[in-house]
Every structure is written in structure tokens, then in C-alpha cells.
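Suppose you are handed a protein chain with no further information: no name, no annotation, nothing but its sequence. What can you learn? This example shows the usual starting point.
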Amino acid sequence: MRELVTYMLETMACSAVLMLMYGVLLDRRVSFATCRIYLLAAVVAAAVIPLLRIPVWNAAPLALVAGVTAGDLSTAVVAETGGAGMREAVLAVYAAGVVLSLAVMAMQLYRIGSMARSGEVLRGHAPRIVRTADSIASFSFFGTIYMSRDIAEADMAAIVAHERSHIRHRHSAEKVAMQLLRALMWWNPFVWIAQRRLSEVHEYEADADVLSEGYDVNDYIASILKSLLGYSPDIANSFRDSLTKKRFKMMITKRKSRYAMLRTFAVLPVAAALLCTFSFTARAEQPEVPVSEIGIAVAAAETTQPQDPQKKEVLMRAEVMPKFNGGDIQDFRMWIMSQIHYPESMYDANIQGTMLVEFVINKDGKLTDIRIIKELHKDASKHVADILSKSPLWSPGMNDGKAVDIKFMMPLNFRLSDGSASGAKVAAAASREG
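A reasonable first move is to predict its three-dimensional structure. Written in C-alpha cells, the prediction is:
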């Protein structure tokens, strides 16, 4: 849960910085193509950078310490269960947001398709033009232009020129891509801002192309004003834009792209700084002592997970609890200490955390049904499963003088802490609520 929240906050931080750089350095100061590429790349980069883990510098050798007691164990198990429930709730809310966003997108596509089927297709025009009986703001979607039948013939030329520019620059593909990114990151407000800025750039570019063909600015503005009302899907390139004043200002103001190349390259140090902040990590050195001297805190606790009625009956408690190898839980601790070690791949990557393992002590005293409930690293899972499968016999649990199967859950806390490897001590703790 904590990792998920951290990722979301880091993503929003990256997005905020990248959008700030867009507003300060690029917006209406560099080419439209550069702005379009930057906005799409910024959204992707903000999502990817926090996921990267790039080991750059060496860290001092780390030693593991152990310190799990019976009381702490009960708290730790509750925390793991609560955290899992909260994580599932957050993921459910996220999935609902994605589904809702995609549903809205699907509805827009369906309505555009309905217009294409019911509208009048004008012959002899390239690109394809569909005139609808509905009151809509003129827009284009991929290779088709949609406009209301109420548009006068005198205004059609400017509108077609505008939408033809959208089609030529493949703006529809960019809008669909940004819509999908927004659906996946609907919780990030800066993605919504980036989508809005991309729509602005599309309109600026189309306006500039129309005026470059020799259309009179005043006549063109009049055509825009006549096309402001009506339905306009977000996924399409609309002739209407709620920030029309900004478009008019762009039309009557000569753009000066001074130092455009310098402004573009100025973004690179910012991206490098974000990588350093969110992606660069320390590279742990190989310890100078045997890996077996690295400690792991191990604790055993009962599980409360429901049982499948089709399977054999497995209890959580018994009148007489199982004993390890004829001894007590302390002997199990000593055996674990002698067998388990910190996987080198995890040590090198500075990976730590808690793994949850479930197993059953059956009626014959064998440790069976090993299952990794929460995986920390595949190498650790394999190593732990191999060790537990080789466990010596236990004295089985007893109820009413009969042997019974008892299920256990074991949190294995893999922890790295500052210290010299030579001072590392092997330690383990195992206990069970009685």
C-alpha cells in the first residue's frame, strides 16, 4: 500500500515539474510539432520515471538485524492483513476510474459512428465530409470531417481547411493516445492539464495552416464564431474551443520562436534531475563475509484464512500444539538459523521487506502444503520453499488424543540496516500465539 501511494505521489511530482517546464519554456515558443511530442512524452515519462531503479553509486555493505518478538508478531500479521485489504480497496477504486474513463471514450466513439451512418456524405470531396442533422460543432476524426447541415456554404471552405490540417498532422491519433493515457492515470490532475494543452496546440496548428493558405483573419474568425455551439466529442479534433480568445490572440499576434532549439534542449537537464531524484539508487556491494552470516528475522503465527470444505480438515489450534523435531519452537528457530540465508540477488539489488509463507504440520508430523502468500523476490521464495520442504519431523498437534493437521503462517522479515558486514550476526526469532 505504501509503495502504491509513494508511486502515485512521485508520478504527480514528475508531472507537475514537466508541465511547469512546458509552460515556462515551450508553450507557444517552439514549433507545434515539438509541443505535441513533448506533451505526450511528458505524460509517459512521469509514469515511467518513478518505476525505474537505476543503481548508480556504491553503498556501504549492509547487515541484517533480527528483532521479532511474539507481541510484535501479532501486530505485524494484523498490519499485513489490513494493508492487503486497503490495497485491494485502492485497486478497486483505480479500476473503477479506468473503466469509467474507457466507457466515456467508448460512448464518444459510438456517437461518432452513429453520425457517420446517419449523416449525409458529400460526394467528390477529399477528405470525406459528413453533414449531420444534429447541431454539432464541426470536428474531424481521423479521415472524416463532421459538420452540421446548418453551416453555410460560404463558411465551409475555411472549416474544411481547418479540419484538413488536423487530418494531415494526424491529430486524431494523438488525441486517442492521450485519452488512453488519461484513462490509465485519471487520478493525476496534471494528465488532464496535458490533454487540455495538447488540444490547444492542435487548434493553434490548424489555425496557422488555414491562415497560411491566404484566408482573411477576420473572415476566418467570423467562421469560428458561427461554429461555436453544438456537440463536440473530446476524442475528436473540434473546430470549437472554449479558449477561443487565446486562439484569436494567436492569429493576430506574430509568433517569435527565439532560441527555440535552446528552449527544447533546456528540458533535458530537468529530465535528468527527475531521474536522479526518483530513479537512481545505491548499489550494494558484495559482503566480505559468507552470506550465511546475514541474519533474517523469522516469526511463526497462525493463519485465519477460511478452509476449502472439499479439502482435508486443517485446524488453527489444538489442545497440544505441534513441536519441532521432538523439541520446542526454540529448536525450530535454531534450525532456521542454520539453513536460511539472504539471497545474493536481493542483497545486490538492496531488496528488503516481508514475505508471508503458509504451511501445514500434518498428522504424521511432516511439514507440507507450503504456499507463498506474499512474494518478496522469486529467489527468496524458492530458497524458503526448498528449506521448509526439508524440515525434520515435528510432533503432530493433538486433539482428544488424536493427531490433527495444524496450519501455520510465517512472516519472514528480510531487513537491511546500516552497519559493517563483519559485525553481522545470525539471528532469528519464531513464536506462535498460544
